[in-house]
Design brief:
- The protein is α+β, with helices and mostly antiparallel strands.
- The protein has one domain: THUMP domain-like (Alpha-Beta Plaits).
- It has 4 helices and 5 strands; from the N terminus they run E-H-E-H-E-E-H-E-H.
- Strands 1-3-4-2-5 form a 5-stranded mixed sheet.
- A hairpin with a 5-residue loop joins strand 3 and strand 4.
Length: about 150
């Protein structure tokens, strides 16, 4: 069953910039080997730590005016291309509202192959960011609130 989720509260550009600056999403990842040239100075990720990925498609998300039919066709085209290429991955979530893409589980080699599929604009490793919740941010000092 397909699961849908959205990134809420920001435009796609603002969310991309905010996430990148907060280190929630790592830079664009392109996997390469000796016979494949690197694309646009992208980083190569190695190691078994990266097993969850955001796959971003070329079309803008629904919030930017892309029709639901176009988003569905793009997602179906991705699945067909991955199947035809023999790339092994497991879909975790599908995003359409503020981000057009999927979250998948796959090894690093498969992520590199996904990046090279037609219609994929980027592949980002999923990482966890810890929010530092300091007491002063959540417990206001009310003594200064009264005049």
């Amino acid at each position: 069953m397909l699961q849908h989720a959205t990134i809420s509260g920001r435009s796609p550009t603002a969310c991309s910039k905010a996430c990148a600056s907060a280190s929630l999403w790592s830079p664009i990842v392109t996997m390469t080997n000796a016979s494949t040239p690197a694309v646009a100075a992208a980083q190569t990720v190695t190691g078994s730590w990266a097993t969850k990925w955001f796959v971003e498609f070329e079309s803008p998300p629904a919030a930017d005016g892309t029709s639901a039919a176009t988003l569905t066709r793009e997602r179906d085209r991705f699945r067909d291309a991955a199947r035809a290429s023999g790339v092994s991955y497991k879909q975790r979530f599908a995003y359409t509202t503020l981000f057009n893409g999927l979250s998948v589980s796959a090894d690093a080699d498969a992520a590199g192959e996904l990046r090279n599929l037609d219609g994929v604009s980027a592949v980002y490793p999923v990482s966890t960011a810890k929010l530092d919740q300091t007491a002063s941010a959540f417990e206001p000092d009310l003594a200064f609130a009264v005049r």
